[in-house]
Amino acid sequence: MPQDSNRKTVLDPFGTSVVADYERLYKEFGIEPFKPLLSRMPNPSMYIRRGIIFGHRDFDRILNAMRKHEEFAVLSGIKPTGEFHLGTLMTAKEIIYFQQQGAQTFYCIADVEAYEDNKIPFEKSEKTAVDNVADMLALGLDPKRAYIYRQSKEIRVKDLAIIFGRAATLATMKAIYGERHIGLYLSALIQAGDILLPQLEDFGGPKPTVIPVGIDQDPHIRFTRDLAQRFQRKYKFILPSSTLHKLMKGLDGSPKMSKRQMNYFTLHDEPETIAERISNAFTGGRATIKEQRKLGGVPEICPIYENCLFHFVEDDDKIIKTYHDCKTGTLLCGEHKKQTIDIVLKFVKEHRRKKKKFRGKAREILQEKQ
Ligand code: SF4
User: Fold this and answer.
1) 151 C-alpha to center of ligand 1: Å?
2) Separation of alpha carbons 194 and 107, rounded Å
3) Quick check: helix, strand or coil at residue 332?
4) Structural domains of the chain in order of their starting residue, each with its CATH number
5) What gap in Å lies between CA 194 and CA 201, rounded to an integer?
6) C-alpha angle 199-201-202 in degrees, rounded to nearest 5
7) Residues forming beta bridges with residue 213, ordered by sequence position
8) Which of 249, 277, 302 most suits a substitution to test ligand 1, by most atoms within 8 Å of the C-beta?
9) Ligand 1: distance of its center to the CA of 298 in Å?
10) Is-contact 312 347, C-beta < 8 A?
11) Which ligand 1 atom is at minimum distance from the Cα of 337?
12) Do 238 and 207 touch, CB atoms closer than 8 A?
C-alpha cells in the first residue's frame, strides 16, 4: 500500500485514504501549494478561494493559458457507482468551472474502474451513467462543448493503455498501487489513457490539460505524468497538470463517506433521509449549551460546517460569519443543523427539478457513444 504508517498518510485511489495533515503533503509527495497562485487567478472558484483546492501539480501552465486566453483542456472522471453525493459533486463542479473558463472539456465515465474496483457490471453502470450525466447537465455542463464518454467504449483510451502497458512493470504498479488484482492495474493504465486523451491529434494535439481530483487520486496523476514523459518523443505530450482538493468527512465525523456506515447523503435521497442524517450528524459542539455559549464550538472538526463550506453557503461573508458565530458560541448546533437542512433541501429540490429536464438529453448523449 502507498503508505507511511509512521506519518499516517495514505493516498490510495482504490481504497481508504487518510490525510492527517494537508500541509505535510507538500513535502511528502512534492505537491505544490495552491495559495501562492490565488492572487493571479482571473476568476477563482469557491473551492479555490476557500483553500479546499489546496494543492496542484504544474497548474502554472494552466493559469498562464487562462490569463492569455490560450487553448487548454480539462478532464476528470467519475465512477458510475451510484447517485451523485457531495464528493462527486465537487469533481463535477470543478469540471464545469474550467469549462466556463474556456477549457476544452472532457467528462469521463469511469466504468472500467467501477467494474474492476467496485464489481459493477457494465449493464448496470450504463444506467447509472445516464443519471450521472443528467446531474452534470443540471449543474451546468454545456454538452455542446464537452466530450462525454465511457471508458469501456473509447477505443483511443484503450489503445493508449495497451501502449503504456509496455512501460509499466509489475514492480512499478505494486510500488504505486500496492498488491492488487491485474484488472485494477489495467484500469490505472486506462486512466492514464483518459488523462492524455485530450492531447491526441483527434482533439487538436498536445495542450496544457488540468485534471481536477481529490488528493486520493494523486497516485494516478504521478503515474500518468511519468508515462507522459516516457512517451514524450512519440506523442509530444505536455505533462498533465492537476488541482487537488481536500476530502470530505462523513457526517459521523469519520475521515471517509461510506455506504456501509450510511454517513452521507446523495442528491437522490428522500428529503426525510437527508434531514435525518444531518440531524444525527456529529458536530464540533460542546457537551452542554452552557459550555458551548462559554467556549464556542470547533468548526474545524465539524461535518455540518464542512458541508456548508464545501457546498451550501456560497457567499464568502456568510461562511466567515458562520465560523465566527460558532467559535464565539453565538450559534448553537441544533439551530445550525436546522438552517443547514433548509439550505440542503432547497438545493436538492431545485437540482432535481433541473435534472428531470435533462434525462432525455443524457440518454441521447450516451446512445451516440455506443
Ligand atoms: S455551531 Fe455549527 S459549525 Fe459550530 S460545531 Fe455546531 S454544527 Fe458545527
Assistant:
1) 41
2) 10
3) coil
4) 3-247 (3.40.50.620), 271-358 (1.10.240.10)
5) 14
6) 100
7) 244
8) 302
9) 7
10) yes
11) 7
12) yes
Atom number in ligand 1 closest to CA 302: 8
In whole angstroms, what is the distance from residue 351 CA to residue 90 CA? 15
C-alpha cell at 87: 464528493
Please give the number of the atom of ligand 1 that sits closest to the Cα of 281: 7
What is the grid cell recorded at 367? 446512445
* Per-residue pLDDT tens listing for the chain (370 residues): 344 445 567 777 777 766 778 888 888 888 999 999 999 999 999 999 999 999 999 999 999 999 999 999 999 999 999 999 999 999 999 999 999 999 999 999 999 999 999 999 999 999 999 999 999 999 999 999 999 999 999 999 999 999 999 999 999 999 999 999 999 999 999 999 999 999 999 999 999 999 999 998 999 999 999 999 999 999 999 999 999 999 999 999 988 777 667 889 999 999 999 999 999 999 999 999 999 999 999 999 999 999 999 999 999 999 999 999 999 999 999 999 999 999 999 999 999 999 999 999 999 999 876 5
Cβ partners under 8 Å of residue 324, min gap 6: 330
Measured between its terminal Cα atoms, the distance across the chain in Å is 36
Ligand 1 atom with the smallest distance to the CA of 296 is 4
Calculate how far, in angstroms, residue 84's C-alpha sits from the geometric centre of ligand 1: 25
Name, in order, each residue with C-beta under 8 angstroms of 258's C-beta and a sequence gap of 6 or more: 250, 264
d(CA 53, CA 274): 26
221: alpha, beta or left? (left if phi > 0; alpha if psi -120 to 50): alpha
184 CA from centroid of ligand 1 (Å): 40
CA distance 38 to 59: 11
Closest approach atom of ligand 1 to CA 327: 4
Residues in the chain: 370
Residues flanking ligand 1, CB < 6 Å: 283-285, 297, 299, 302, 304-305, 326, 331-333, 336
Ligand 1: distance of its center to the CA of 319 in Å? 12
Residue nearest (by alpha carbon) to ligand 1 atom 4: 326
**Closest Cα to atom 7 of ligand 1:** 333
